[in-house]
Amino acid sequence: MHPIKRALISVSDKTGITEFARSLSDMGVEILSTGGTARLLKEQKIPVTMVSDYTGFPEIMDGRVKTLHPRVHGGILAKRDNEEHKQAMDTNGIKPIDLVAINLYPFEQTVNKEGCTLEDAIENIDIGGPAMVRASSKNFAYVTILVNPDDYKIVLEEMKSNDNKVSFETRKRLSRDAFSHTARYDGLIAEYLSGQLEDKSKFTPKFQKTYELFQNLRYGENPHQEASFYREVGARESDIVSAKQLQGKELSFNNIVDIEAAWRLVTDFEDGAVAIIKHTNPCGAACGDNQLETFIKARETDSTSAFGGILGFNRTVTADVAEEILKNFVEAVIAPNFEPKALEIFAAKKNIRVMELPLPNKDEPSRLDIKKVTGGVLLQDEDSINLDPEKIKVAGEVKPTEAQMKDLKFAWTVAKHVKSNAIIYVKNLETVGIGAGQMSRVDSARLAVEKANKPVKGCVMASDAFFPFRDSIDTAAKAGISAIIQPGGSIRDEEVVQAANENKIPMVFTGIRHFKH
After folding, report:
1. Other beta carbons less than 10 A from residue 399's beta carbon
2. What is the model's pTM?
């Protein structure tokens, strides 16, 4: 290990930099710097040498060229125990630079500002900074690279206890973090420029998405699986990763997945809605103006499965509902907000996870849905499409009533959030039976009947995809189903519609399929 004798500091994020530089100076480290960082250190009476004085070459082109110089990069990249490198340094007046503290021009902050122009964005693309970061990272055997202010204290502590030296393992870890830093930076630039092209294709030749470690989890879906939660750069305030946990145990991997499912379901409704999720599938859902009644209706769909479930609300949770929730064990509750009295009631059960999240802005553009498979990822648009009343087609001879149509639309929305094959039975804007994840649509229809805690007779039925045969319709008719909504599009649509007509069941086609895998 070589002691740190010379450091180059040039940062946009100046958090903690004055204290760090002063400590380095007090330990006898010579400091090189540029621009605003150098001015700040001078103002704080910290000895500093301008890079332009060290290189003998002025900053030019409005600061675009200042550190791109052999005396800088040679000082960073030289192998300290290589005789040829040492001779080249002596010949060219190059001094070793042992520590580099750099964070890059604020490109992300710039492009997120309202009114940012392409010129503004371009001028905030750092060139010299990434070059020095990469050079330092490559030569971590000799150079300590710092891109995160949180690491200043760690490095100083090692130096103080080890004659100004930083351990190899720490330098290697900092190198990894620095390469991640520049990769993230370049990814943000590529993503921004993709949005500036006339052809704004979502599916670019190279797909890059930047995520940052947000939370380490106790384990994954099962205790033997390690897991962490990463936050997407640019995540919206209504995304699950932005939810504020008001109380409760630490979130688990499965909690997060189920909370997302509950939130996406209830926020698909304009009216007050409640959903209960178990293993990513709804085991109950309802809409209504009276939140307490609506919650009880949702729970009654499958009260057995609701035990230990995740609850989603798209309205402020009231105190009377909080009291009703605590009559049974639940894992978590998510809502846009909670009455103060409701939070007092939840506090009596300190383990229940209470999550607060603002409702999404429906005018925001949809995003890509990413699914990981071994060796690659699948990209698709989010399934954000909803029913267009004008495109609903009455396929059979019997037209649905106004009340039936309301139930059909509700059932159709719930079906969108149920794993395929999905069959939903609904009456009076509450789920009565849910058949999910079966290999046969007929089995889903039967399962939904078997799981129903209320009579299925008079319910409407929704299917997430077309019926390939009339058997599901005949099964529904025997159960007393009053109306059916489905995408249509089967080569046997005529046979299916005929079955509906024979049983005098109104059937509507949406033209929209909602497979969920």
Report:
1. 12
2. 0.79
